[in-house]
Fold this protein.
Amino acid sequence: DAKTTQPTSMDCAEGRAANLPCNHSTISGNEYVYWYRQIHSQGPQYIIHGLKNNETNEMASLIITEDRKSSTLILPHATLRDTAVYYCIVRVVVGTASKLTFGTGTRLQVTL
Amino acid sequence: AAGVIQSPRHLIKEKRETATLKCYPIPRHDTVYWYQQGPGQDPQFLISFYEKMQSDKGSIPDRFSAQQFSDYHSELNMSSLELGDSALYFCASSLVGGSVADTQYFGPGTRLTVL
């Protein structure tokens, strides 16, 4: 699976949009971009995933560049409960079970 | 909606003892994954099962074994426990069969402490 690079930490004011970048310059054509987050010692929580088109769900938006070498997770209105470690994971999905390879992630701190 | 269930949530064992962790996947999910997260570390993949067959294996010690049963629940068996096995153990499940891109959903984890 392709390696990802994320900032170690970020701060965001409550109510503002949190934009979390991820670089995956070696991504292959059959690899998806997945985002998970982990709130202190809880099980990782799925947020969103995409292949090449931008995606939006009730939690967040995922913007993938045209060359697919980077992406941005957007939390439109961050709250204190969004404080967590956010993981960007690139993963081959070909109809068989494939693992998630967690990197160090971005520690997002949402403040008042 | 039903989530992944793990039991027990907390487990304390002595060195050289054995432990069994159980995972009950989301109904109709056919795949189970096990991950280990040591203190201050990121989750690391251990092993996975698709339709009751082992599908992938990570850095799982030989002292550990796992299986998926006919009802799709899975058990992780850990023998000769060492202090370094103290960690959070997460199970995740997904529906692979018929999916274009399956999504793994995680359980709350089992915190294992080896004394």
